[in-house]
């Protein structure tokens, strides 16, 4: 009887051993909150809603998008940092708060590598070098020549310190060896209006924001900031092939969670989101708003964030970018 009891106890213990794995395999068993540090219509919000709708169907649980805009993404990401790392709170965020803000802000309440689990990159959105039609330069080479002939006279309209427009323009100035004058606005919308009115001469807005004005003949595209030409503007050269070899600067959106999420949960989310982004239907949706799906493994996403931090550090230093 003694040995029988011991055998029964051993069998019971063995039966209980796989419980953590079983629980992980049951994820999710309730709705998931997907934070986004932007207002409705912003790139992270668009990416979040397209993915959330399809992720809900795949996981069998509602994925609820929650907009938490403000402070350049700090509000949403600090909330994410402090959430339980169980996979029920994740975030669709622009890459800038993870790669530029840590270089610009002295007292950021999170570390982009230590405080988050990197699930996958989602999207890239190239920006365009656009100019008012009165600018004598018709292409990137002519702009560089003009800027060298008139140091500090070419004006570019920019949104906030460390934003995509600011960093993209300063990288261009550094690599092209020119000096331009920055005119700052609170957001991209008034910066774009400034170029449309002729108050500023150039800018580097998201292609989706600039394209209607380009098609209407009010702005001229001199080049795109991506490494390759874009399907939506196949005749427009990249800046890299227009006199600035190696130039590349794109905005992006990625999916992250709190640090120390279970590996099985990260793998499940990555697998489902990558499948969603690789579907032709979703690719067409994003192409219409000038965004390109760019899914990665969790490890590739971490490496990308590290490489972007390294890339932008000298640009931030040379331009003297400091938090406002």
Description:
The chain is α/β, with parallel strands linked by helices and 324 residues long. The protein has helices at residues 2-16, 19-25, 43-59, 74-81, 96-99, 101-104, 140-149, 164-176, 188-197, 207-215, 263-277, 280-287, 298-319, and strands at 32-36, 63-67, 89-94, 116-126, 128-132, 155-158, 181-184, 202-203, 219-224, 250-258, 292-293. The chain folds into 2 domains: 9-125 and 252-319, Bordetella uptake gene, domain 1 (D-Maltodextrin-Binding Protein, domain 2); 128-242, Periplasmic binding protein-like II (D-Maltodextrin-Binding Protein, domain 2), CATH 3.40.190. The protein is built from 13 helices and 11 strands. A 6-stranded mixed sheet has the order 2-1-3-10-4-11, sandwiched between helices. The chain has a 5-stranded mixed sheet with strand order 7-6-8-5-9, sandwiched between helices. The radius of gyration is 23 Å and the shape is globular. The model is unreliable at 1-24 (pLDDT under 50).
Task: Tell me the overall shape.
Answer: globular
Number of strands: 11
Number of domains: 2
**Per CATH, what is the topology of the largest domain?**
D-Maltodextrin-Binding Protein, domain 2
Report the CATH architecture of the largest domain. Answer: 3-Layer(aba) Sandwich
Strand order of the largest sheet: 2-1-3-10-4-11
Order of helices and strands: HHEHEHEHHEEHEHEHEHEEHHEH
What is the CATH class of the largest domain?
Answer: Alpha Beta
How big is the Rg? 23 Å
Key structural traits:
5-stranded mixed β-sheet; D-Maltodextrin-Binding Protein, domain 2; single chain; disordered N terminus; 6-stranded mixed β-sheet; 44% helix; 11 strands; alpha/beta; 2 domains; 324 residues
């Amino acid at each position: 009887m003694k040995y029988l009891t011991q055998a029964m106890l051993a069998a019971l213990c063995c039966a209980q051993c796989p419980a953590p794995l079983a629980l992980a395999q049951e994820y999710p068993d309730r709705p998931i909150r997907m934070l986004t540090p932007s207002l409705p219509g912003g790139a992270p919000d668009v990416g979040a809603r397209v993915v959330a709708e399809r992720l809900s169907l795949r996981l069998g649980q509602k994925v609820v998008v929650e907009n938490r805009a403000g402070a350049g993404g700090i509000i949403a990401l600090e909330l994410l940092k402090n959430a339980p790392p169980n996979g029920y709170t994740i975030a669709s965020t622009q890459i800038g708060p993870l790669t530029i803000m840590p270089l610009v802000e002295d007292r950021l309440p999170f570390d982009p590598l230590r405080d988050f689990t990197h699930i996958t990159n989602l999207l890239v959105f190239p920006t365009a070098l656009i100019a008012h039609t009165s600018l004598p330069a018709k292409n990137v080479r002519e702009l560089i020549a003009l800027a060298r002939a008139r140091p500090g006279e070419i004006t570019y309209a920019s949104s906030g310190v460390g934003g995509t427009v600011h960093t993209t323009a300063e990288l261009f100035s550094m690599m092209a060896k020119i000096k331009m004058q920055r005119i700052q606005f609170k957001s991209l919308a008034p910066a774009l209006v400034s170029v449309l009115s002729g108050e500023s001469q150039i800018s580097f807005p998201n292609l989706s924001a600039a394209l209607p004005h380009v098609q209407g003949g009010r702005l001229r595209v001199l080049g795109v900031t991506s490494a390759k030409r874009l399907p939506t503007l196949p005749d427009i050269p990249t800046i890299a092939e227009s006199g600035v070899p190696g130039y590349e600067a794109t905005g992006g959106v990625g999916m992250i969670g709190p640090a120390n999420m279970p590996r099985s949960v990260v793998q499940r989310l990555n697998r489902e989101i990558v499948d969603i982004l690789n579907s032709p239907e979703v690719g067409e949706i994003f192409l219409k708003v000038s965004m390109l799906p760019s899914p990665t493994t969790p490890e590739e996403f971490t490496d990308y964030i590290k490489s972007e931090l390294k890339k932008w550090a000298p640009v931030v230093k040379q331009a003297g970018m400091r938090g406002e």
